[in-house]
Amino acid sequence: MTPLEKAHRIRELPPYLFAKIDQMKEEMKQKGADLIDLGIGDPDLPTFPHIIAALKEAAQDPRNHRYPSYSGMREFREAVATWYHKRFNVSLDPSTEVVSLIGSKEGIAHLPLAFINPHDIALVPDPGYPVYNTATLFAGGIPYFMPLRKENNFLPDFSIIPEAILRKAKLIFLNYPNNPTAAVASRSFFKEAVELAHRYHLVLCHDAAYTELYFDNVPPPSMLEIPGAKDSTIEFHSLSKTYNMTGWRIAFAVGNADIISSLGQVKTNIDSGVAQTIQVAGTTALCGDQTPVTEMRRIYQERRDLLVQGLKEAGFEVEAPHATFYLWVTTPSGFTSSEFTAHLLTKAAVVTTPGNGFGPSGEGYIRMTLTVDKERIAEAVERIKQMDFSH
Ligand SMILES: *Cc1c(COP(=O)(O)O)cnc(C)c1O
Question: Which range (14-23, 92-101, 103-112, 132-141) has the least confidence?
Answer without folding.
Answer: 14-23
